[in-house]
Target: GGDEF domain-containing protein
Amino acid sequence: MKLNESLDSEGRKSLILINIDDFSTINETQGFTAGDKLLKSFGEYLNNKYTKCRVCH
Model:
């Protein structure tokens, strides 16, 4: 989904930026594939937790 396609029924959208503390350490110690999997899992978690919202990840 593209961000410009994520408007609500009234034409509004929000953007939330999340900083994961020490995330670079995960990439450095576990590799970028593991970091990518973690980010995808977190996005899926948010999508499932906030079912009334559309989450881009």
Remarks:
- The chain has a mean pLDDT of 81.
- Residues 32-49 form the longest helix (18 residues).
- Residues 4 and 16 are 14 Å apart (CA to CA).
- Residues 25-49 form one domain.
